Amino acid sequence: MSKQERSVCVLLPNKEQLNIAIGVKATGHELFSRVCDCLKIKDPHFFGLSVVKNNEHIFIDLEQKLGKYFPKEWKKEASKGTGKCGPPFLVCFRVQYYVENGRLISDKTARRHYYCQVKEQVLRSECTHKEEVYFLLAAYALQADLGNYKNNVHLGKYFEPQAYFPQWIITKRGCDYILKHAPEIHSEQQGLTAREALLKFIRESCLLEDVPVHYYRLHKDKKDEFASIVLGLTLKGMHIYQELNKMRQLLYDFPWSNVGRLTFLGKKFEIQPDGLPSARKLVYYTGCAFRSRHLLQLLSNSHRLYLNIQPVLKQIRRAEETQEKKLYRESYISDTLEMDLDPLDKRSYGSGSSQGSTRNHRLSRHSTSSHGSSGIEADSRHRMSVEMAVDEPFSIEPAHKSMKSFSSVISHGSSHTSGIELGSKDRAEDDSQDDEVELAVDDPQEMSRLAELIEGMSVNSPGFNQEFCWKDIDSQPVNTYEFVV
Question: Which of 239, 271, 381, 433 could share a disulfide with 266, CB 3.0–4.6 Å?
Fold first, then answer.
């Protein structure tokens, strides 16, 4: 490693790490590209690089130089005479934007890393009123990691409870209880492919409020020594909590549609609820202008993401509902045929013929497979055809034409900085305490245009696919953000 290079240790969601040597003047984008190349991820949307400061993940603006996020040692050369370099600088490759449906993640490797991080979030989750959800998620995770439950293979302690359940459930129920009941739920997922189980895990994990969320501490008053307010950036908006005796109490739930304007003035952070007078705005303090700028960028990009994926999510939901209805009808017909063939099968059995018995056995197995997967799975041949279709990118031309009218949500070449429009000179200099930045959250005209886009898309077209391909919608952004500096 030369004097103009630094060693960076990149921590991955699957608990592995990459050691990368990169130039001292390199930008975040250069490091991000190197990481994606090493992991062979072609579509890294929803992911970013972060550094941990005060127990919070600060996501790196990929257009900025890495030195802005590291200590002064980054710019110092190796100790003279020894030739030794200091410890590597730590960076996390992690999910920056959560989604409610894993089909939005088109890259298989990226989807697996997304699953790994969400799984880790579930282990730290504390939604004590939704205990049954954790057992279902554990079953999906076991199916995704180990495959079908096998009586002769999965015996005794074939998994570690700590790897699939939060500690509070283990303390409450005990390992013996978990090792007795979790395999039963695992066996009910018989027939689910690893990919299907992974997608179900991602979708059901959204039922836990503290999983798909980023937390950032705020001060209630600028003179407060401790930050007692917690901002939670969720899938659909923001949560504001107050922390008392190490317990979080929800004060406000702001969906994006209920947020009129966000304003950052130096350390001050203001939330203007939609439809309320300015006197009703909420005022908190971030502690420093750097955090204010980071929060504004993350919030604006998250809001843009939320708007951009709504048409695609609607397509996916319609396709999934259509598929469920189709598979349910097939299952119902299968059960009806089984009942109708029962007397015939008995007569065939009495006459020594095995043909009726064989046919009935096949139908029964088909029906059981369907019920074993929540009543919506077809036989293995049909499921294979669905699997092949879902893995392919969008190929329908009309859908492309409709979707090109709104932007790719988080294109790391531009959108990581699209939340803040500032001159290069201002971006290079230290943040000013007097800079005021305002974010207009909802534009009625843009929302109307989105509604038209949504209604104009058909999921019944022959080439429709449930998977989303980000590279097909790189164009102008959907929503326009107003910034007054």
Answer: 433
User: What SS3 state is found at 1?
Assistant: coil
Number of neighbouring beta carbons within 10 Å of residue 391: 13
User: What is the DSSP secondary-structure string of 98-159?
Assistant: --S-GGG---HHHHHHHHHHHHHHHHH---GGGHHHHHHHHHHHHHHHH-S--TTTS-SS-S
Q: Say how many C-beta atoms besides its own lie within 10 A of residue 448's C-beta.
A: 10
Q: Measured between alpha carbons, how far is 34 from 28 in angstroms, rounded to an integer? A: 10
Per-residue pLDDT of the chain (485 residues; tens, 9 = 90+): 677 899 999 999 999 999 999 999 999 999 999 999 999 999 999 999 999 999 999 999 999 999 999 998 898 865 554 455 678 899 999 999 999 999 999 999 999 999 999 999 999 999 999 999 999 999 999 999 999 999 999 988 999 999 999 999 999 999 999 999 999 999 999 999 999 999 999 999 999 999 999 999 999 998 888 899 999 999 999 999 999 888 899 999 999 988 888 888 889 999 988 877 766 889 999 999 999 999 999 999 999 999 999 999 999 999 988 887 877 666 556 555 444 444 434 444 344 433 444 333 333 333 333 333 333 233 333 333 333 233 333 332 333 333 333 334 434 433 443 333 333 344 444 444 445 554 544 444 444 444 444 344 333 333 334 444 444 434 333 333 333 32
Please state, in angstroms and rounded to a whole number, the distance separating the CA atoms of residues 102 and 105. 6
Give the Cβ contact number of residue 321 at 10 Å: 11
Tokens at 145, concatenated = 């990691």
